[in-house]
Specification:
Blueprint lengths: L1 E6 L4 H14 L4 E6 L5 H6 L4 E8 L6 H16 L4 E10 L6 H11 L2 E4 L4 E6 L4 E2 L3 H19 L1
Parallel strand pairs: 1-2, 1-3, 3-4, 4-5, 4-6
Antiparallel strand pairs: 6-7
Helix pairs in contact: 1-5
């Protein structure tokens, strides 16, 4: 079983969260991490992955152009190969208190064929005044990865 975590490479913090998730999940599943601009969507399709997590920096409610472009390419290639994921999820670093994970879930559902959108999209608030995450980032990431590992374990 294979999981890829693809993230927006515009800000280092998305890489930090992707790698934190990788560290927590690699005991349960084969996990790889990659920056959307560096990982070709066709390579991911060839990997025949079961799970995908997409991470992004969201200033409003829409995904970044980097993630939108990656997802659209992935959709095109996976549809040509009639592929579907077992589960899809995401994490979002938000600068905005008004972020709604429903919009993010809809974007993923509309563009990637999957059996399950793993519901709690991890949303981390970025504190621009301190140029840092809020202090709960490690606990939030730990809880999210624990829930995903339970989900994966139960679906094996």
């Amino acid at each position: 079983m294979k999981l890829w975590i693809i993230y927006n490479g515009g800000v280092v913090f998305s890489k930090v969260i992707a790698e934190m998730l990788q560290d927590r999940l690699e005991n349960y599943i084969d996990v790889s991490v990659g920056k959307a601009s560096k990982i070709n969507s066709s390579f991911i399709v060839e990997e025949e992955l079961d799970y995908l997590i997409i991470g992004d920096i969201v200033n409003e409610i829409i995904p970044s152009m980097e993630i939108q472009n990656w997802v659209l390419k992935y959709r095109e290639i996976s549809e040509c190969n009639n592929l579907s994921l077992k589960a899809l999820s995401g994490f979002v670093i938000s600068f905005n208190e008004m972020f709604k994970d429903i919009v993010w879930s809809e974007f993923l559902r509309d563009n990637i064929r999957t059996e399950t959108i793993y519901p709690p999209i991890l949303c981390v608030k970025f504190d621009q005044t301190n140029i840092a995450f809020n202090t709960d980032i490690h606990m939030i990431t730990k809880e999210y990865s624990s829930e995903i590992s339970k989900f994966i374990t139960n679906t094996k």
